[in-house]
Recover the amino acids of this structure.
């Protein structure tokens, strides 16, 4: 039973995008457009080239930003402000999810490759504000992104959590490999499941999954 597999967990780590809200909200459609626009303006390339670079850097480095920083020395701060300036009108409060997160034993934190201010806006739109003991963005990892292990190590060191007593909920399976290797319980939150050794559990319904743990 899932509940037994989480009986030791005292820290619950949640990704943000497509994890604490359903992918049907399609917030990343907006973010991707802004990313492409930023690449065009910053590097002086056309839209097709910018879009290709955005996708290639995401695949190679885990985030488009990391590719821009490493290959073009782009300043991360203004980029992050710009690409996360999106509408959250499609998000709706989820009282059931809020109730289940609040009922989890121990601490709950958010760790996203976005920024903490963006995460706070999303959590407010979902009715999840005030439920988390800490919110960490990519800026808290010195702009290193998930899935790099060093990014997780930086965040977890700052938080003081013990990885063997923690669980990670994440929509991108790449971002569960380091937590698994560090001794965490891993949950892939996505429409489709993957049979991977670093994924302990899969769910397409985070609210329902958390209900089974309480």
């Amino acid at each position: 039973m899932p509940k037994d597999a989480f009986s030791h967990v005292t820290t619950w780590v949640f990704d943000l995008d497509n994890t604490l809200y359903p992918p049907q909200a399609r917030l990343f459609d907006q973010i991707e457009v802004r990313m492409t626009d930023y690449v065009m303006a910053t590097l002086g390339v056309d839209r097709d080239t910018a879009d290709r670079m955005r996708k290639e850097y995401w695949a190679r480095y885990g985030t488009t930003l990391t590719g821009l920083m490493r290959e073009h020395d782009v300043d991360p701060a203004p980029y992050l402000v710009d690409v996360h300036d999106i509408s959250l009108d499609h998000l709706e409060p989820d009282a059931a999810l809020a109730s289940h997160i609040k009922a989890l034993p121990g601490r709950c934190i958010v760790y996203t490759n976005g920024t903490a201010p963006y995460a706070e806006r999303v959590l407010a739109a979902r009715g999840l504000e005030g439920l988390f003991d800490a919110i960490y963005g990519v800026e808290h990892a010195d702009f290193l992104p998930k899935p790099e292990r060093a990014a997780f190590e930086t965040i977890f060191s700052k938080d003081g959590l013990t990885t063997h007593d923690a669980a990670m909920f994440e929509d991108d399976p790449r971002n569960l490999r380091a937590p698994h290797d560090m001794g965490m319980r891993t949950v892939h939150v996505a429409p489709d499941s993957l049979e991977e050794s670093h994924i302990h559990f899969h769910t397409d319904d985070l609210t329902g999954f958390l209900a089974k743990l309480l």
